[in-house]
Amino acid sequence: MQSSVETLSPTKVRLTVEADFDELKPELDKAYKTIGAQVKVQGFRPGKVPPRILDQRVGRGVVLEEAVNEALPRLYGEAVEASKLAPVARPEIEVTELDDRVKLSFTAEVEIRPEFTIPAYDSLKVTVDDVVVSDDDLDEQLDALRERFSSLSPVERAATKGDFVSLDLVATLDGVEVPGGTAQGLSYEVGSGSLLDGIDEAVEGAVAGDARAFQTTLVAGDLEGKVADVAVTVRTVNERILPELNDEWAGLAAGFDSIEDLKADVRSRIDRVKRLQQGVDARDNVLEALLALIDIPLPESVVATEVQWRTQTTADQLSRSGQTREAFLEEQGKTAEEWDAELKTGAEQAVKAQLVLDAVAEAEEVEITDAELNDQLIRRAARAGLPPQDYAQRVVQSGQIAGLISEVRRGKALAAVMEAAVITDASGNLVDLEQLRDDMDSPEAEVEQDEDGRPYHVHGDGTVHYLDEEEHSH
User: What is the phi/psi pair of residue 241, to 5°?
Assistant: First the structure.
């Protein structure tokens, strides 16, 4: 087999391949066997029909087409390997000549990883925030814990922010009750903004028995976007009573002997969370610093695929939350053009990170062991709430195993860069990478949540994958 490479752009080449017909023999034999098993010829058992008889019955062209379609992926792969190319997308293959019993020629246009120079990792210097647990941090967490054990007490005064009111409300549109727009005895925290737009202003300052009215824009259902009239009656006003910070409550709330023991435990947990965040920041800052030193053209089709996936992910999120794209953009304070531009920029940065980390992995000769792959499968199975064997089977059957291996490999490549980089905190102290590694490998570091409470995982190449969807990879 002979092949040549023509550069079409910094990210695209055309492979021209010419193979002697003898090189198609394995696929040709297979084609005869496959077709022969489907054709019944008197005097011959299925699969035992001689090739010359099949040529007469079904035509030599049918057999050649079957063989060529089977051989093209193999010949293309061999040509790629011989040319030492790094494809990043599927090729566009065109058979240019098929001379029976003589040769097969074809071209393959494919986008490749562009060539670029990786800078020395030790030139990277990044800074992350200090890990400091303040008294305010401690108080915030203790208050949140106390709120879980709080009680409500009726008060005879006007409702203020933080109070819980019991409400009756009716929403109407042109005098007709809105479907699902009636509630009685509804408990609502004043100032939380979790019910209807305009309700906080209506009930704040009201006392038990007061009736108020306001208008609100409906955000879901067939009447989405319509302005409804809402009549609300405050039945009771209740204030939240928080338990005192004492030894008795520490034992009741968390099983500690004293409030000081509880505070020490909470402080330790906050410290761990902050160290986890420091690890995420260190990883992100190192990757950002590395990418800033490299200027490379990006394969258009790969960027387009990433943009398409991110667009679809956003649309799916909005659909699940019952929010329109227009309402989402208004909430974000962005035009459609601005949002699309940001989405494309993010996609380009993610693709660039993947290309660079793939190159680093190749330069560092990074390999993934079976143990490392199994560890990732077990971790992801736990996050997905599936038995490891079932999750592994799903990954293999969906063809995602190659993507998973690539992600793990990129993560190891980024770890190698971090080892050489200089990472300091804001006080100038070197960050302990061993401690970071332990923290980042812990279960607490596995899953984060977005504003809608959906779990997601940030991979080493900076891409975000939601855990309640199929894995997305290149």
Answer: -105, 115
